[in-house]
Structure formats: C-alpha cells, structure tokens
Amino acid sequence: MLRTIKPKNARSKRVLDARQPKEVEDPRTAIFVKGTHTGDVLNNVMRELMALKRPNAIAFNKKNAIHPFDEASTSIASLEFWANKNDASMFVFGQTTKKRPHGLTFVRMFDGKVLDMAEVGVEKWVGMADFKTPKSTPGHKPLMHFASELFDTHPRFTQLKSMLIDFFNGEEIESICLPGIEHVISVSCGPTPAALNNATAIAYASRPKPGANGANGGSAEETANFPKVHIRTYTLNLLSSGTRIPRVELTPMGPALDLVLRRHQPADAELLRQAMRRPKLKKADVEQGLGKKRKNQEVDEMGDLRGRVHVGKQDLGKLQTRKMKGLKAGGDAMDVDSDEAGRDGMDGDGGEEDAGEDSDGFGANPRKKRRSKA
C-alpha cells in the first residue's frame, strides 16, 4: 500500500489531480516488464510494440522475477505497486520458458487493481526494419480492424479484442480528418474450426473457471483448437479517384506477429461492473452538450434535461368545441347579413348603429332598424 501523499506545492498538487478519476480518461500508459528469461525474440517483439505505443510507453530494462499466473499474490502486489507509482493502467510482461516459449502477457488494471490478464505465445514475427516502407508518426491513433466472427462470439477472443483495443487506443477525440489516419492495425484469425461454433462458445463462457480468484490455467488441450491470431500493420495512402472519396491503398509497415492463445484470467464480476460504470454528467456539461450545441434543449435547476417539441400547423376548422348556435354552418352567412345591415343603419353624420349583435356577439339575432325622427 502506498502512503497518502499531501501536496506541498502547486506543482505536486497538479500531478496528483491528474491521477484522479476522470469522465474522459487519458490514454492508457503501458509498462513493458521483462522476466527472468526473455531471449532475442521477446526483446524484439516488445521493442516493436513499444514503438507503436509511444509516447504512452514505459520500459523496465532490469529483469524482474515475477510470475503473474504461478505466483499470483506476490506478482499482483508488484504490478499494483508499479501501476500506482507510474500512473499506468496496462502491463506487457515477457517471459520465456521451456514449457511456454516466447510468452507475452497483457495485464489490464482498474483503480490500481488487476482487472484481467491474457497470455499469448509469439510463434512468428517480422520487424519494422524488414519492411523498406514509410512509417507512421508516433502518437497517432491507429484504425483497428478485426476480421473474424470469433472476436464477437468466443469469450477468449472477445477478451483479446478488448485488450488490444485498450492497448492501442490513444486520446479520445470527437472527429478526425482523413489525412490524420496514418496507419491501420489489422487483427485476423485463421480458419475457424467446427468445434468453435456459437453454442460451444456460450457453453465455455458459462462453465465455472477453476483456480483461485477466478484464474484459469488454460491447458494445452483447451487452446489446441484455437486458431492463430495474425496482427498486421499497414500505412494508408490516399490517392486521387476523381471523386470526393479518395482511393485507399495499404502498404505493409510492420511489425507482423503470429500469436497463439494460452493462459488467461477473466475479470472479477464486481470489479468489471465498476469498470463499466459510466459517470453521471454534471449540469454544466449537459448544458454545453459536451462541447456540442444542442438546439431546443435546456437544463433546469435540478439538472434534468428538458426539450421543446415543435408541432406542425394545426387546422382549427376541425376542432371540436361546444355545439353553439352561432358556430353552426349557417352562422357565417348570417354574420355577413348583419354586417351589411349595420352599415346601412349609419347616417352620413356618423349616427349610431341601427343593427347590433346579440348578447353572445355572434350576430345570430340581428335587431330591427330604427327610424330616425324628423
């Protein structure tokens, strides 16, 4: 546990405030940790992933004797300590053994605690230096593409998809221009075997997970039928097409990785529910519409959003009212006769009207003309 730090000046206070929870979080910072044995393959793969993650990447050059799946208590304590100290929410841990060579573990954090973990094995890789093509600018958000139905149906591939999106996701933006998209990360799977259909995936998700704290070892028999995951990175070339929409060409940039799924630890149900909870918007944010002007909407003193609805022009001739004598169909003609009689009753000197309206003012019973006395 880290001790509570009280800021001594304005600079330290700004740093502590930046680490507080936010409605729109900053890009996830990933820490790359080396195990006791890594080898050239894992070192190069972690270097390539860190090049795609920059500038939100931190590298630990020293070797660390931690095992997230085997020694869960001590390893998780070390990861939580590093996460709180460096304000990081993701880890990429590399470890190679005789039983699991070239293992790469993605660890995702929430509120300073380990949320879930997924281990993959690197079977083949090609670095950026092997592709003699232009590279993207560091810090740009990539366009993610997942080409397999397993990423939406099978829980293991769904977890990997969510992990990769959080790893490569950058700053939250509302809009982006086409020249701002420089590279694409395509994630695909091999041919889906018949054993991994939708029903099998649902049964796999509902099965109780063995191990402590929901950890699942993921034996080789369970992951043997899983297809390989292929990660490819391309740069975008926008060419002229004669229309407003340009013609897009993809150029391999690297790195290219072939991964296999291994062990994993699903997220705790209560911790996942807290992580998926959306914060309530403040009144000022609702009024501003999160930076977008909203027409015919306002917020009252209680913070409730209210809107005005404009209806079309109404035909009052078909409006149902009281069945009065003056509102019948013949009432208009009688009003015209009454007006003509009133005009005839006016003398040249501006005398008073000889014809008047009834008590209701509808002219239903016009009075008789009065004769003027000589």
UniProtKB/TrEMBL annotation:
<feature type="region of interest" description="Disordered">
    <location>
        <begin position="1"/>
        <end position="22"/>
    </location>
</feature>
<feature type="region of interest" description="Disordered">
    <location>
        <begin position="280"/>
        <end position="374"/>
    </location>
</feature>
<comment type="similarity">
    <text>Belongs to the RPF2 family.</text>
</comment>
<feature type="compositionally biased region" description="Acidic residues">
    <location>
        <begin position="347"/>
        <end position="360"/>
    </location>
</feature>
<dbReference type="InterPro" id="IPR039770">
    <property type="entry name" value="Rpf2"/>
</dbReference>
<dbReference type="InterPro" id="IPR007109">
    <property type="entry name" value="Brix"/>
</dbReference>
<feature type="compositionally biased region" description="Basic residues">
    <location>
        <begin position="1"/>
        <end position="13"/>
    </location>
</feature>
<dbReference type="GO" id="GO:0000027">
    <property type="term" value="P:ribosomal large subunit assembly"/>
</dbReference>
<protein>
    <recommendedName>
        <fullName>Ribosome production factor 2 homolog</fullName>
    </recommendedName>
</protein>
<feature type="domain" description="Brix">
    <location>
        <begin position="28"/>
        <end position="270"/>
    </location>
</feature>
<dbReference type="GO" id="GO:0019843">
    <property type="term" value="F:rRNA binding"/>
</dbReference>
<dbReference type="Pfam" id="PF04427">
    <property type="entry name" value="Brix"/>
</dbReference>
<feature type="compositionally biased region" description="Basic and acidic residues">
    <location>
        <begin position="303"/>
        <end position="316"/>
    </location>
</feature>
<keyword id="KW-0539">Nucleus</keyword>
<dbReference type="GO" id="GO:0005730">
    <property type="term" value="C:nucleolus"/>
</dbReference>
<dbReference type="GO" id="GO:0000463">
    <property type="term" value="P:maturation of LSU-rRNA from tricistronic rRNA transcript (SSU-rRNA, 5.8S rRNA, LSU-rRNA)"/>
</dbReference>
